[in-house]
Target: Formimidoylglutamate deiminase
Amino acid sequence: MRFFAEHAWVDGRVRRNVRIEIADGRFASVTPDAEPAGESLPGLVLPGLANAHSHAFHRVLRGRTHSGRGSFWTWREQMYAAAATLDPDGYLALARAVYAEMALAGITCVGEFHYLHHAPGGVRYADPNAMGAALIQAADEAGIRITLLDTLYLTAHVDGTPLRGVQERFGDGDAESWAQRVAALSVGRHALVGAAIHSVRAVPAAQLALLAGRAPLHVHLSEQRAENEQCRAVHGCTPTELLDRHGVLGPGTTAVHATHLTDGDVKLLGDSGTGVCLCPTTERDLADGLGPARRLADDCVPLSLGSDSNAVIDPFEEIRGMEMDERLATESRGHFSAGELITAAANHAALGWADAGVIAPGKRADLVAVSLESVRTVGSRPDQAIFAATGADVTHVISGGRRIVADGRHTLVDVPRELAKVLS
Ligand SMILES: [Zn+2]
Model:
């Protein structure tokens, strides 16, 4: 395959007239300032974007759970009600539509933080990995890669309170049983199996070390002040300090949210090489608070972005959230460069795909063309278009050398029809 991009994000900046050749799913050559050849990709061409944190089933809550008062904790009861109804066939249909919606917005790889493992009451399906297998199949049918972050979830509170109600579907009993089940997962070439610790609320301290050293390893961290307070009461330290004590931090680990951190927590994350996944649209919807994104970056923490609750699936909105939240918090402008924002939005390494996320020879051939002629983007300079674009401006998506979106339409899934079917 050969493409020609008038503007493409190459070597950390916008390059003009870039000829891009693809062979066996990877970039064979990338040549700026070239003569036109091959199929023209209009607008600004970016690397494929990585959605580093998703719970696919939360999509059913969009547009239904935003009014009225409450908090993260009252929202969680509504989320649990949605979790109670799914089975493997239903989850396959829902996740396929959701992942195809992600593809339309420019996402070529999803990190699915997966804890909805078992049937109601915690009963095992005939295949104990039936729900995870459904998610892996869903990503394949939507044309994107997936890292199934299979999640260890054992307790309801930091103090070890047992799971109850719908939470019983999440639990494997102990870390050994979880590891045995996960070892039996089989994946295709489009998928990786990673691990996740749901949070310090859901995994007893004594079992944290059993996951230390796994990669990629993700963990919800300090999304809520209550988690910090409960952790201090039980363990006498912050959640970040608890993870550090048990060897969980490190370059293969990504902390999700990392909203309410002490200065010491920021330093521990930076010194250990741990990454942080920000989820700006979810964090504002759930009134979580603002995390120290710039301070984390200054301490050399690699940042990534996730749609999390999928109340919004738009990587450009997450990109803008990363910068604009800092502006609101500091009353000053210009905290992240366009390059830093695109690097975060295309952080496939956080999902274990270190060979993706940039348009360069040898890397996985993921491309996203963003229109510069829509009502939102017309007039934008290409190097600032990410501050104006939305997912609706994505016109073409190539994932691993395969065309999955053309002229704004998914080539494999009728996304509006399938979403309507699973959500109405
Ligand atoms: Zn989450």
Q: What stands out?
A: The longest helix spans residues 88-104.
